[in-house]
Amino acid sequence: xxxxxxxxxxxxxxxxxxxxxxxxxxxxxxxxxxxxxxxxxxxxxxxxxxxxxxxxxxxxxxxxxxxxxxxxxxxxxxxxxxxxxxxxxxxxxxxxxxxxxxxxxxxxxxxxxxxxxxxxxxxxxxxxxxxxxxxxxxxxxxxxxxxxxxxxxxxxxxxxxxxxxxxxxxxxxxxxxxxxxxxxxxxxxxxxxxxxxxxxxxxxxxxxxxxxxxxxxxxxxxxxxxxxxx
Length: 230
Fold this sequence. Notes:
Layout: E1 3-8, H1 10-14, H2 26-29, H3 33-36, H4 39-44, H5 46-62, H6 67-78, E2 82-87, H7 93-97, E3 102-104, E4 107-114, E5 120-122, E6 141-145, H8 155-164, E7 167-171, H9 183-189, E8 193-198, E9 210-213, H10 216-228
Parallel strand pairs: 1-2, 1-7, 2-3, 7-8, 8-9
Antiparallel strand pairs: 4-5, 4-6
């Protein structure tokens, strides 16, 4: 086995205290997705949206990587082949765990984006509506988050990796959000073995060859130990 492609979703960060979309309580439960995670919501009430992501940024800054994040970083370092990690998460827990190469298909809380010129820069801990872009000086700063209705980042490169994968693993993803929900079918089409880690089968769980049920902090380290033969 030469190449492992891994997709992580909100479930891997939940055990670090960062709530999932659909969890009861927490930041997401207080807002409609249409209001805080769409370009239309931002146009309608930029203050609400910016404050929402300020709160999420502060929450993520305090979170620590858990055993699943640490195990994946160990896999990247020790695997005798290539490990490609794609995440739907906008936190930086994979990087905090020590991963060198993380593709954030839905953007990142610690990034800012200019709506006028597409310039990107590190976000301050607290953003404000009308913040100016350091590139073109337009008052068009926004969180560098891919909202519903926008195209996820790095899709061409991700599909290239899926086409070359020997093993595709999905960890803590709901299988409800496309295009990520289609990655397992894409990997299978190219002949990859497929494995899901979740608390329960995802919406696309039937498409995986195997499913390991349980907390990611238990199932992922055990799997990494198997892969590395330790």
